[in-house]
Design goal:
Elements: H1 7-34, H2 36-48, H3 58-62, H4 67-92, H5 96-119, H6 123-126, H7 129-136, E1 151-155, E2 159-164, H8 170-175, H9 180-198, E3 202-208, E4 217-223
Antiparallel strand pairs: 1-2, 2-4, 3-4
């Protein structure tokens, strides 16, 4: 390994594990909905996109790889496999996108609630949209630190807006044959769930999206009146 692993590398690994856990939640929902047929589809997906290595230490996963390239490869594997799974089910079942979106939302809620516990958030913190967005950044994988991820454009306790000028996920979704808007909807459902998990009064809105043809994405958390 070319460099010693530091906190930022483990921070990124935690975000990757969140993506993998969201995939697992979606897969579980597919299995509940489609039964044995789901296993057949998943067998085909995993032949091309192998399942996650589970909870192996990051040091073991990277082995002698360059750290940056190794972490990037983990992101690509996780996001491509999730997209391929969703694309395969959408190709066969008309309601698969909705099933995946609902599962992502519920998982987002659980992530938000877990964040409250692990971060020791106070009731005041939980009513602060700026804090909710900050904490979400520790869970949502939005590219590498060197990528231009979500950028805050307006921030307060009651309303926080952020944008994207490009989508770091789209190339992986495209490679997997997944529909851009479908995947965007699913990730946005996770975000909405996360805000709700932090505080049930936090509402989420996607005002613009590259996936719908806008020049950029624009989203916000707002405390419901």
């Amino acid at each position: 390994m070319s460099l010693v692993l530091g906190p930022i590398h483990h921070w990124m690994y935690g975000k990757i594990k969140t993506t993998e856990a969201r995939e697992s939640a979606i897969v579980s929902a597919f299995k509940t909905r489609y039964g044995a047929e789901a296993d057949k589809i998943l067998d085909q997906v995993y032949k091309k996109y192998p399942k996650s290595a589970g909870n192996k230490p990051l040091e073991e996963l990277l082995a002698n790889k360059a750290i940056h390239q190794g972490i990037q490869s983990l992101i690509i594997a996780a996001e491509t496999r999730e997209a391929a799974t969703i694309a395969s089910f959408c190709a066969k079942f008309n309601d698969a996108a909705q099933i995946a979106a609902e599962a992502a939302h519920e998982y987002g809620i659980s992530c938000g609630k877990e964040a409250i516990k692990s971060k020791g958030l106070t009731p005041a913190d939980c009513s602060n949209t700026a804090k909710a967005f900050e904490v979400m950044g520790e869970y949502l994988c939005d590219g590498m630190p060197c990528d231009r991820g979500a950028q805050v454009v307006a921030e307060s306790e009651k309303s926080t807006s952020w944008d994207h000028e490009s989508c770091v996920h789209e190339p992986y979704w495209q490679d997997a044959g997944a529909d851009f808007l479908t995947m965007c909807n699913i990730v946005n459902e996770w975000i909405a769930g996360f805000g709700e998990g932090i505080n049930s009064q936090i509402g989420y809105k996607r005002e613009k999206a590259l996936a719908t043809g806008d020049a950029s994405c624009l989203s916000n958390f707002t405390i419901k009146s």
